[in-house]
Structures are given as structure tokens and as C-alpha cells.
């Protein structure tokens, strides 16, 4: 069965950095686009970044452009989210997700599997 397991979340001060990892199993990882979403308390789950199966095409939310970077290692079946210059408003649960196709994900309706989420808390 498809499994997506996130790790790397935690508490970090504003301006700091974290790298999230998502280990995938149960499917041919290199055939699917992958994405990271986040959900803050009381808010909807929103797309942060996505990358196509080849890694050649990406999407970033305006709020994270220039600070976050999504990458993938198809040999390790893992997708990463490098987060720099973290802000208080980046505090959320971060979810790894699999796209329904090999392309870039642009919204949650293009997702068919979700990870369980990892908490990222940015403090002042």
C-alpha cells in the first residue's frame, strides 16, 4: 500500500532553517509528481511546493518563494522541503502528498495520497 512518512519537523526560531523529508513506499515513486502542503490551526490546507516526476518542473506558493526549496531523490524514494528564513507564519502541520499524475501539482484536488503530517513551529 502507498505510504508517505514525513520527518524533520520541530521547533525553530524565526530566521532559522529546517529540512523536511518524506519517505515514500508502495508505489513507483519516480512516476508521480510530489508536493508539500501545510495547514495552520483554524485554516485550510494549502499547497506550499510541488515538483514533477523528473524534477524539472516546480511550483511554489508566493508566500515561500525564495525561501523554500522542494527536491526529490528518486533513487531514495524521498522528497524534501528545505525551509530557510522561517517566519512565525510558517508555523503549521506540513503534509507530504502524491499527485495523481507525473506532473506538477497545483491544488489539493490533484492529490490522491497524504502523509500523516509533521509539526513545524516557528518561535520569536
Uncertain runs are none
Q: Count every helix, treating DSSP H or I runs of 4 or more residues as helices.
A: 0
Order of helices and strands: EEEEEEEEEEE
Going by helix content, strand content and strand pairing, the class is: mainly beta
Largest sheet, in brief, is: 7 strands, mixed
Which overall shape is indicated by the principal axes computed on the Cα atoms?
globular
Which radius of gyration do the C-alpha atoms yield?
13 Å
What is the straight-line distance between the termini?
40 Å
Q: In which range does the helix fraction lie? A: under 10%
Give the strand tally.
11
Mean pLDDT equals 96
User: How much of the polypeptide forms β-strand, as a percent range?
Assistant: over 45%
Describe the structure.
The model has no long low-confidence stretch (mean pLDDT 96). Strands 2, 4, 5, 6, 9, 10 and 11 form a seven-stranded mixed beta sheet that branches. A four-stranded antiparallel beta sheet has the order 1-3-8-7, with no helix packed on it. The protein has strands at 3-7, 10-13, 18-25, 34-39, 45-51, 58-60, 68-73, 78-83, 92-99, 111-114, 118-123. With 124 residues, it is mainly β.
Kindly summarize this structure in a few lines.
The chain is an all-beta fold and 124 residues long.
Amino acid at each position: 500500500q502507498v505510504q508517505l512518512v514525513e520527518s524533520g519537523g520541530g521547533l525553530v526560531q524565526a530566521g532559522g532553517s529546517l529540512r523536511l523529508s518524506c519517505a515514500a513506499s508502495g508505489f513507483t515513486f519516480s512516476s508521480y509528481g510530489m508536493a508539500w502542503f501545510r495547514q495552520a490551526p483554524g485554516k485550510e490546507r494549502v499547497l506550499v511546493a510541488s515538483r514533477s516526476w523528473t524534477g524539472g518542473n516546480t511550483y511554489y506558493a508566493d508566500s515561500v518563494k525564495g525561501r523554500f526549496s522542494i527536491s526529490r531523490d528518486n533513487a531514495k524514494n524521498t522528497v524534501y522541503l528545505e525551509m530557510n528564513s522561517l517566519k512565525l507564519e510558517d508555523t503549521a502541520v506540513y503534509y507530504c502528498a502524491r499527485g495523481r499524475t507525473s506532473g506538477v501539482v497545483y491544488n489539493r484536488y490533484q492529490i490522491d495520497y497524504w502523509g500523516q503530517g509533521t509539526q513545524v513551529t516557528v518561535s520569536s
